[in-house]
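User: C-alpha cells in, sequence out, please.
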C-alpha cells in the first residue's frame, strides 16, 4: 500500500548557489538564494517510488553574497532578486518542477531520474540524494542555458552569473 510523505520549508531548506565569471568576476558576489515556498511529495511503496518537487519562483530570496569588492548590502540583494526573477521569467512561469518517476537505491541514498521544468523548458535530470532515517540531503548542478535561462550579466558581459548553478536540499524527515 502506497503512502505519501510531504516536505516543505518547515522541514528544511532549498537553496541555489551561483558563481561569477567574466573579466571582472572578482568584483561580483557569489549568491546563496533560498526559496520560502516549496513542496516535495514522496510516494513510498516499500521504498520511495516517485518524487515531485514544486518550487514557487516568486518566493526566491537572496540570502547572502560572498566575495566582491565590498560586502553585499540589503539594496543589492533586492536588485539581485529582481534580476533573478526576470531571468527566470517568473511572471510567465511561476513554478519550477522536478518529477522523478525512477527511484533507484544507492548505498547511502537514492538516485532520482526524471524531468526538470524551468521557464517553460523541460529536460531529463538526475539527482543523487543521501538519506538516513532522519535527514535527506541532495545537490545537483543545473546549467541555466539548457533551460533557456540567460544568466544575468553587466558591464557588457565583463561580469556575469556563471551558467552552472547548484541546487541543494536538506530536510528532516517526518517521524
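Assistant: Sequence out:
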Amino acid at each position: 500500500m502506497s503512502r505519501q510523505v510531504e516536505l516543505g520549508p518547515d522541514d528544511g531548506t532549498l537553496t541555489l548557489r551561483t558563481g561569477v565569471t567574466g573579466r571582472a568576476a572578482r568584483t561580483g558576489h557569489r549568491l546563496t538564494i533560498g526559496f520560502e515556498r516549496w513542496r516535495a511529495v514522496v510516494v513510498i511503496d516499500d521504498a520511495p517510488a516517485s518524487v515531485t518537487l514544486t518550487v514557487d519562483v516568486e518566493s526566491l530570496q537572496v540570502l547572502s553574497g560572498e566575495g566582491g569588492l565590498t560586502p553585499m548590502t540589503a539594496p543589492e540583494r533586492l536588485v539581485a532578486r529582481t534580476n533573478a526573477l526576470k531571468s527566470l521569467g517568473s511572471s510567465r512561469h511561476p513554478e519550477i518542477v522536478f518529477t522523478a518517476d525512477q527511484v533507484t537505491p544507492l548505498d547511502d541514498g537514492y538516485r532520482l531520474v526524471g524531468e526538470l521544468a524551468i521557464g517553460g523548458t523541460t529536460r531529463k535530470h538526475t539527482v543523487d540524494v543521501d538519506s538516513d532515517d532522519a535527514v535527506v540531503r541532495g545537490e545537483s548542478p543545473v546549467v541555466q542555458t539548457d533551460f533557456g535561462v540567460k544568466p544575468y550579466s553587466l558591464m557588457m558581459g565583463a561580469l556575469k552569473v556563471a551558467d552552472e548553478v547548484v541546487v541543494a536540499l536538506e530536510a528532516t524527515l517526518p517521524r
